[in-house]
Specification:
Blueprint: H1 27-37, E1 39-41, E2 46-48, E3 50-51, E4 55-62, E5 85-87, E6 114-120, E7 128-134, H2 150-156, E8 159-163, H3 168-172, H4 188-203, E9 209-219, H5 221-231, E10 241-245, H6 256-270, H7 278-283, H8 287-294, H9 316-322, E11 330-335, H10 340-348, H11 365-376, H12 380-386, H13 395-420, E12 425-430, H14 456-459, H15 470-489, E13 503-507, E14 514-517, H16 518-521, H17 524-529
Parallel strand pairs: 2-5, 7-8, 7-9, 9-10, 10-11, 11-12, 12-13
Antiparallel strand pairs: 1-2, 3-4, 4-6, 6-8, 13-14
Helix pairs in contact: 2-15, 5-9, 10-13, 11-12, 11-13
């Protein structure tokens, strides 16, 4: 079917030191045990974290040197070393960015290559699986410390590592003037992720983890990152399972020509147009100016992973087709109402109002048809026939279903089937229609259902996780068991996905978990027929 032309609103968004069982021999002994459990010796030096009743937390550990000065737009270099004990009770700075989701925060920091480690409180007889999280955010927003690993670590009995990586222009500007000696440029954020995985291989054992059992997992742009690392030669052997949430290896990344064009447009917008000095001009810009020029999705410059012939020699979508990805078990899936978040954003800013308005405007039936015709062109009438308006639902819900099935379900399921032909693959769908919405910001004007990002508070400690009901807490426990069991064994508690067995595991509240024919629910054959 080719690329759909979307309106702007549619592009949103060592060894362990003295850790043993707690001995109840008096307050002084307990305090000594807590202090010793808080100190771990990494290959760079000792770090002191915090110890809670059920977990330990080590934040702000530098896994690479600060990418400042000559290291801006350069591969990450080995991290610093230190004597004594480094404080690891607070996160490091977020990488430079505007504010994205309500849970994100703006930053102007370049010194941001930090990671966070969360472990269960108790010691274990055998090393624990390690789960390395790559956050989402369109490669321009987000941070590792926004995803607290407490519930996943303690409930799943795993080690959780969350990672900052360079974003936006500082992470993915593929301008030819910035090319290294091998001729490649861009993908600095992917290289940061690889440096973090090497750090995990060297230091997992110090935190009680198994460097031979590492799961790389991510959501949205983080899932795209997992796909890229599956196709990257440098990550061979650095991870042993992969989990992709709400994105797919079937979606192509930028070609070198596309990335070069985006980089040149970025340079033009920022005022670096003289070819003789463009590199120096770019290096002279402040992080704030770089972030401002990247802007927001749909209005700024789209930057992300690129086929550069070095870090990423081939598009992950092509590698998936020809089987040249790392052969590791895969857990992949999405949320049932992914695109309702996009449609809510459209209503929130009033882009569908008859005139500019500071107030949200519900989508009308006529606007629904206009949006479909604008996006799908010659196929619009087929789409409208397949997705007729339900008078019992707002038009926003119908448009959300169209975008969910086209943008997410078809590529996610296509990729899952391709994986299933080569490696053990397990599919899931998150479908809690009452999932809590973000704590900050206005309430949506319609039911957002299992929207993009809705599964995150069920796996991580994020601000809107506090809104989970007791029933949703039980669903959270179920999902944590599923994710951690997959990390532990490379298998799920439900059958493998196969082309002749299209059922995936559904995670829903109120006893609604089970299985579903994913292809039928999301009109998979219909969307494939339009390609």
């Amino acid at each position: 079917m080719g690329k759909v032309s979307y309106p702007r609103w549619a592009v949103t968004l060592g060894a362990l030191v003295l850790v043993g069982p707690v001995m109840a021999v008096g307050p002084a002994a307990a305090d000594d045990d807590r202090r010793s459990a808080a100190v771990v010796r990494t290959d760079q030096g000792a770090v002191r974290g915090t110890v809670a009743a059920d977990h330990r937390s080590f934040q702000g550990i530098p896994y690479a040197s600060p990418p400042l000065g000559a290291l801006r737009w350069a591969p990450p270099q080995p991290g610093p070393t230190w004597t004594g004990v480094r404080d690891a009770t607070r996160p490091g700075a977020d990488c430079a960015q505007l504010r994205g989701l309500p849970m994100d925060a703006p930053s102007e920091a370049e010194d941001c290559l930090y990671l966070n480690v969360t472990t269960p409180r108790s010691s274990a007889r055998t090393p624990r699986p390690v789960m390395v999280w790559l956050h989402g955010g369109d490669f321009r927003f987000g941070s590792g410390d926004g995803y607290g690993g407490q519930r996943l670590a303690a409930g799943g009995d795993v080690i959780v590592v969350t990672v900052n990586y360079r974003l936006g222009a500082l992470g993915f500007l593929a301008h030819p003037a910035l090319a290294g000696r091998n001729g490649s440029t861009g993908n600095f954020g992917l290289q940061d992720q690889q440096a973090a995985l090497r750090w995990v291989r060297r230091n997992a054992a110090a935190f009680g983890g198994d460097p031979g059992n590492v799961t790389l997992f991510g959501q949205s742009a983080g899932a795209t990152s997992v796909c890229a690392q599956l196709a990257a030669p440098a990550t061979a052997g650095l991870f042993h399972r992969a989990i992709m949430q709400s994105n797919s290896c079937a979606n192509p990344v930028q070609t070198r020509a596309e990335a070069t064009g985006a980089a040149e447009e970025f340079a033009r917008r920022i005022g670096c147009t003289d070819p003789a000095v463009v590199a120096a001009c770019l290096r002279g810009q402040t992080p704030a100016r770089l972030v401002e020029t990247v802007g927001y999705p749909g209005a700024g410059v789209d930057l992300g992973p690129v086929i550069d012939g070095h870090t990423l020699p081939v598009d992950p979508a092509e590698a998936l087709t020809n089987g040249r990805l790392h052969r590791v078990p895969v857990l992949t899936g999405m949320n049932r109402d992914e695109s309702r978040l996009v449609v809510w954003g459209m209503e929130r800013v009033g882009l569908n109002c008859p005139a500019p308005s500071p107030e949200p405007c519900p989508l009308t039936d006529a606007q629904y048809r206009d949006q479909v015709r604008g996006m799908f062109g010659d196929h619009a009438e087929e789409v409208l026939a397949r997705y007729p308006r339900d008078p019992a639902q707002p038009a926003s819900a119908t448009l959300g279903a169209v975008l969910t099935d086209h943008d997410y379900a078809e590529p996610v399921y296509s990729a899952a089937l391709a994986f299933a032909r080569r490696v053990p693959t397990f599919g899931y769908e998150f479908a809690d229609e009452d999932a809590p919405f973000f704590t900050e910001g206005p309430e949506p004007t319609f039911a957002t259902g299992a929207y993009h990002c809705a599964e995150l508070p069920y796996l991580f400690t994020v601000d809107y996780a506090e809104a989970l009901t007791p029933t949703q807490r039980r669903l959270s426990d179920e999902m944590i068991r599923a994710w951690s069991d997959f990390a532990r064994t490379g298998r799920a508690s439900w059958p493998r996905l196969r082309p002749d067995a299209p059922y995936v595991r559904v995670f829903a509240g109120g006893g609604g978990s089970g299985s579903t024919d994913f292809a039928a629910v999301h009109a998979y054959d219909f969307w494939r027929s339009l390609r």
